Amino acid sequence: MIIRPEDVKGDITKSADVVVIGSGAGGAPIAKELAVEGRSVVVLEEGAHYTRDDFKLNPLESMMRMYRDAGQTITLGVPSVVAPMGNTLGGTTTINSGTALRMLGPILKKWHMFHGLHDITEDEMGLLYSHLEEYLFVKKADPEVAGPVANTFLEGARKLGLSSGWLPRNAKECEGYGSCAFGCPSGAKQSMDVSFIPDASKSGAEFYTCCRAESIKVSNDVAKGVTGRFVDPSSGRSTGIGITVEAKVVVLAGGAIYSPFFLLRQGLANSSGQVGRNLEIHPAVQTVALMDRPMDPPKGIPQSSHVDEFKDEGIMLEGGTVPPEVHAVTLPFYGKAHAAHMKQYPNMGIFGGMVSDIDSWGRVLALPRAGYSPSIFYSLKGRDVEKARLATVIMAEIWFAAGAKKVFTAITGHTELGSTADLRRLAQSRIRARDIYAMSAYHYLGTCRMGSDPEWSVVKHTGETWDVENLFISDASILPTSPGVNPQLTIMALATRNAGFIDDKLNNG
Ligand SMILES: Cc1cc2nc3c(=O)[nH]c(=O)nc-3n(C[C@H](O)[C@H](O)[C@H](O)COP(=O)(O)OP(=O)(O)OC[C@H]3O[C@@H](n4cnc5c(N)ncnc54)[C@H](O)[C@@H]3O)c2cc1C
Ligand code: SF4
Questions:
Q1: Which residue among 88, 138, 309, 320 is the one 20 to 30 A from 247 at the CA level?
Q2: In CATH, what class is 2-58+94-137+188-271+448-508?
């Protein structure tokens, strides 16, 4: 059952086997798996519930309603990075692009070697991925629906002989509305709100929306439940109505920014001092190509194709078409130059490159004067700066091979490449982090990492915290490193795995 704030008339007190905080890629699968096993499950989700009837293809309105900070969350550091995240039923999956990739093979070996996670085996992950791919109708994007931008970029990549192809997506009968990041109006994208959450509800799980968990009840280092408060969806302010859920197991699944923020505010589960540290964001740079023919953006699937030739070097190129309203605010132009650029939008192709961050530094803090707002510090450093430049050079080369007249980049001093000579100049240049004037990120990870050593990690391989018994964390924060690709499928796989350990605990307890 999905409960909206208008259905709640006064304070609520409940008891359940499991209470889950957050309904995204980490929270919803746990709720469903445990509800199907007959466990009583209550989920508290701070965001509101929207359905396909609400998804009206209006990007700015969607961002106001379904994103934190209307999609304008910014990291503090150099360069400052736009870091959007969902705040709605289904979490960020409701507004994500639907790419559903398995993590790269060598990453799990890294987790074994450096984080002692030998219990998570390749075979087990393979089974979990297969199960999810079947359940979420994962299949490669259809080139007929993908749209001109993706087809043109792949044409350029093939001319250069680069490994490339169509991305697997959790979308069933996708019609190419180009609106995945603002809610899928056709219901094709199998985000949590149309997959795990309805199935969990059918098995009796209760989802309280516009309900912010405020503290975890702990007694003798054992989690006992959660207290929270209903919030007004437009202002985020408390409505004055509270909720208390007594539970045998508490699952924190607020995402890699809000889960550590929650724990830091309460001073919980942090004997290692690792909560909020080790933040990776998988930063992305964008290129925009001016073609001599219509590209019709944002028609098609915004993120349907990729170039994975450089994945072992930590660079993944993936389509990232955005609608004109969003494109307009990312430009380094103003006045007449801005207007002239936007007039050419119908002939433009947009593509993004993501960098697996290995040298950069990031941390989430709960600063006393920042109110209910995490401070996200991130600085792009060392080889990651170089990879961002390289990703830009490769994308520009691909665009020129596909017939681009000009390529716009996010690197100061090289914002407009009009010839191969300009491209060569960028290819031979050295840049600093501060030369990247527009960077964004979508995959935040690592801030409550799993590991085998309680001094260096926050949770065990089962997802249970080292410090507080029966408190589990299940979201992007437990991934000890980036999976090298978009993370949602890996987060869901680990959540499904953790549900098994919680079930065992309930059986034995
Ligand atoms: C625009 C965009 C596109 C993306 N595209 C892709 C893609 O194509 N493929 C992919 O693999 N990944 C993609 N991602 C990333 C992916 O969606 C996330 O990594 C994933 O959803 C994270 O899962 P999570 O459970 O950690 O957090 P979320 O899915 O963000 O869920 C956390 C939930 O917890 C709630 N919450 C937080 N604190 C509280 C509290 N105190 N009380 C109650 N509720 C709370 C939040 O409101 C939120 O709904 C994209 C991200 C963005 C922003
Ligand atoms: S492209 Fe359109 S139909 Fe396809 S998943 Fe995205 S929003 Fe839904």
A1: 88
A2: alpha beta
- Give the ligand with the smallest distance to the CA of 171: 2
Between the CA of 508 and the centroid of ligand 2 the distance, in Å, is 43
Domain 152-171+284-356+381-435 has CATH 3.30.410: yes
Indicate if ligand 2 lies below 6 Å from the C-beta of 41: no
List phi, psi (to 5°) of 400. -65, -40
Give exposure, 409-435, as e/b (b: 16+ Cβ within 10 Å).
bbbeebbebeeeebbeebbeeebebeb
Q: 70 with 465: CB under 8 angstroms?
A: no
What is the spatial distance between Cα 403 and Cα 173, in angstroms, rounded to a whole number? 31
For residues 154 and 101, the answer to whether their CB atoms sit within 8 Å is: no
pTM of the complete model: 0.97
Residue written as tokens 């002989």?
161
Whose tokens are 């993120």? That residue is 303
pLDDT bucket at 370, cuts 50 / 70 / 90? confident
* Per-residue pLDDT tens digits for 225-268: 999 999 998 888 899 999 999 999 999 999 999 999 999 999 99
Predicted confidence (pLDDT) per residue in 429-475, tens digit: 999 999 999 999 999 999 999 999 999 999 999 999 999 999 999 99
Q: How far is the CA of 209 from the centre of ligand 2 (A)?
A: 24
Task: Please confirm whether the linkage preceding 298 is cis (ω < 30° from 0).
Answer: yes
Q: Are 189 and 180 in contact (CB under 8 A)?
A: yes
Whether the CB of 86 sits within 6 Å of ligand 1? yes
Start-to-end CA distance of the chain, whole Å, equals: 27
Q: Which ligand has the shortest distance to the CA of 185?
A: 2
Q: Is 113 helix (H, G, I), strand (E, B) or coil?
A: helix
Q: What is the largest CA-CA distance in the chain?
A: 69
Per-domain residue ranges of the chain: 2-58+94-137+188-271+448-508, 152-171+284-356+381-435
Asked whether the beta carbons of 171 and 188 are under 8 A apart, the reply is yes
Cβ of 314 below 6 Å from ligand 1: no
| Sign of the C-alpha dihedral computed for residues 66, 352, 410 and 289 taken in this order | negative
